[in-house]
Design a protein that fits this description.
Length: 98
């Protein structure tokens, strides 16, 4: 990956962390965390097909809540789940992520 593209992704990641923290705070969610992943269009289609059993068309966002009772003995904060973002769509069509 080119250095300038890497910097753009690093800035986007910092901004996303800030937005996620602000959203959790506004919702009154305390002592919690979540994971956010940036994947390619191909990886997103595979994930959608595998877990949602739907046609593997281009998708911008997938989110999975943490299963109830899933153990996290090494974590002091509640784990909320995972969010997957399509980095190709973010880069090419940021207003169309849905």
């Amino acid at each position: 990956m080119q250095r300038s593209a890497r910097r753009v992704e690093e800035r986007a990641e910092r901004r996303l962390k800030h937005v996620a923290r602000a959203a959790l705070k506004r919702l009154g969610v305390k002592d919690s965390t979540l994971d956010v992943f940036f994947l390619s269009s191909r990886e997103m289609s595979g994930l959608k097909k595998r877990f949602l059993r739907k046609k593997a068309e281009n998708v911008g966002v997938l989110a999975f809540p943490e299963p109830k009772g899933f153990p996290h003995p090494d974590q002091s904060r509640k784990f909320l789940g995972e969010i997957y973002l399509n980095r190709n769509l973010l880069r090419n069509e940021p207003g169309k992520i849905s």
